[in-house]
């Protein structure tokens, strides 16, 4: 129960296959009190039962591209939860057409959308919620190996994740004097709703399973365990880092024309 007494907001939960669900589940099992956001009414129907399952009644609308949602976020969270100890930022998006073909063919509007939703949202959410964060808090976001090396079909999302990892480092310095830590988790490929938009994603799963040191793909619960550590006081000396949850890419690397 190393998160007992901690309160946190989980942003980006879509369903039980989400990485955010794995994080929320392990955090809840270890005593955390949680609040959740949902993107739209369709996802609200999925998020509310999960929140109830994990002992929470806090379900708040949040479309990071909607200024009204962003402007009301602090007041909504504060009225429901008071001050919070951690934020889990599990949001990423790029239009599907930007995840196929060549990166040089990316449209400007698609590039800006990917950067806004996947990167700037971390900064924007932190701006809004920082006044109600306790000292010695933790902010956690999710990256992927495509931020560092070429991964087939990842395209503009790889660029966005690279920017996200840089943002983690700069924010870690900005918030260090407040005792607030900022880190990222980079897991191997996991079959989630967001990942389904990546062309040939099944092949990525097969390749990673074949080359991973553990001989398998990671699960949302695996990521949840690592996340719970980074959200807790056990990692109070860790900030500005990208932590990996078994990804074979980190040891072997992935060639442009991978054999599955």
Describe this structure in words.
The chain is an alpha/beta fold and 260 residues long. The chain contains 8 helices and 7 strands, in the order βαβαβαβαβαβααβα. 45% of the residues are buried.
Spatial strand sequence of the major β-sheet = 3-2-1-4-5-6-7
Strand-pairing-aware structural class: alpha/beta
**What is the number of E strands?**
7
Percent of residues in beta strands: 15-25%
Report the average pLDDT across residues. 90
- Radius of gyration over C-alpha positions, nearest whole angstrom: 17 Å
Counting DSSP H or I runs of 4 or more residues, the number of helices is 8
- Dominant shape: globular
> What is the chain-wise order of helices and strands?
EHEHEHEHEHEHHEH
Q: Which bin fits the share of residues in helices?
A: 40-55%
Residue windows where pLDDT falls under 50 for at least 5 positions: none
How can the largest sheet be summarized?
7 strands, parallel
Q: N- to C-terminal separation?
A: 41 Å
Question: SSE layout and pairings?
Answer:
Blueprint: E1 7-11, H1 19-29, E2 33-38, H2 41-53, E3 59-61, H3 67-81, E4 84-89, H4 108-129, E5 133-143, H5 156-176, E6 181-187, H6 201-211, H7 220-231, E7 242-245, H8 249-252
Parallel strand pairs: 1-2, 1-4, 2-3, 4-5, 5-6, 6-7
Helix pairs in contact: 1-7, 3-4, 4-5
Kindly summarize this structure in a few lines:
By secondary structure, the protein is an alpha/beta fold.
Task: Tag the structure with descriptive keywords.
7-stranded parallel beta sheet, 7 strands, 16% strand
